[in-house]
Structure formats: C-alpha cells, structure tokens
C-alpha cells in the first residue's frame, strides 16, 4: 500500500515526520529514501519530536549512527538513526551491525538504505521524499505489511 502526500515547506515535512513518530513503536524500521537536499533530516527530526527525543537531532553522516532516548506507547525506547551514505559495499552494513538495531526496544531510522537492502526486514516502512530546493516535496509512504495501514490513518 502506498500513500502520497505533498509537502510545501520544511515545516510541513517535519510535521509529517512528527505525526509518523507518534505512531511508531519498538521494533519498527523506517527506510528514508531521497536525494541530497530532499528533506530527510527535517523528516527525521520530526520523527524524533514525535517520539519525545529531547535535544537536537543531526544527521549521522560522518558517524554513521546516532542513538537517542525516546518514548513509544509510554515506554522508553531507543531511536537508532543511521546514515549509510558513506558505505560503498553492502557488507559494510553488516560490519557496522545494522541487524543489531532491529530489536523490540528500538525504532530504527535508516537514511540511504539502498546499500543495505538485503539486510533490511521485510516488515518496514519506506518513506521516499522526492524534490529539492524550494520545490514542493512528494512524500511517498510505502509498506508491505498491512499493520501499517491502521497506523498511517493520519495520511488520509
């Protein structure tokens, strides 16, 4: 199932991320797809806000992984934010322990997930952001598992 939403501003992109963050729960994996400048960081910051992450969130471009404390369903969870842009070979995703992040007490958000597609769980939400610069963004939410349909009602 696919849902497509248009975002006209960075604030709207961040708000969509926040709304998604409010319906995430431990064990969820979100694959964030988009070109440089598409708004992935703004969307990720919104997810963090929706999960109650305190303090600023930045893209882990150089460190590959940032971890934050947040809350889902009134339980403390970890938000594990990965940026795989600098990886050149799929095996590098395994070396950094990507699969270790797919656990029940964490939400895993992965930017540039294409390099690690063979390591990602089937039950994940893909969010593709199309557009850059001052142009509107088309944000496509794509899930294979039907359980996402109930949680993504804020998109309809």
From TrEMBL:
Cellular component, GO annotation: cytoplasm
Keywords (A to Z) from UniProt: ATP-binding, Cytoplasm, Magnesium, Metal-binding, Nucleotide-binding, tRNA processing
Entry keyword Magnesium: yes
GO MF terms, alphabetically ordered: ATP binding; metal ion binding
Family assignment from sequence similarity: Belongs to the TsaE family.
Record-linked PANTHER family: TRNA THREONYLCARBAMOYLADENOSINE BIOSYNTHESIS PROTEIN TSAE
Protein name according to UniProt: tRNA threonylcarbamoyladenosine biosynthesis protein TsaE
């Amino acid at each position: 199932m696919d849902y497509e939403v248009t975002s006209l501003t960075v604030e709207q992109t961040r708000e969509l991320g926040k709304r998604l963050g409010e319906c995430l729960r431990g064990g969820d994996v979100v694959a964030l797809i988009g070109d440089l400048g598409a708004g992935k960081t703004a969307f990720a910051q919104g997810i963090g806000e929706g999960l109650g992450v305190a303090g600023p969130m930045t893209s882990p471009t150089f460190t590959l992984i940032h971890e934050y404390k947040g809350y889902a369903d009134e339980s403390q969870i970890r938000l594990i934010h990965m940026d795989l842009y600098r990886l050149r070979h799929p095996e590098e995703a395994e070396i950094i322990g990507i699969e270790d992040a797919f656990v029940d007490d964490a939400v895993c958000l992965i930017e540039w997930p294409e390099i690690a597609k063979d390591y990602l769980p089937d039950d994940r939400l893909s969010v593709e952001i199309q557009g850059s610069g001052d142009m509107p963004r088309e944000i496509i939410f794509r899930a294979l598992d039907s359980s996402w349909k109930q949680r993504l009602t804020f998109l309809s």
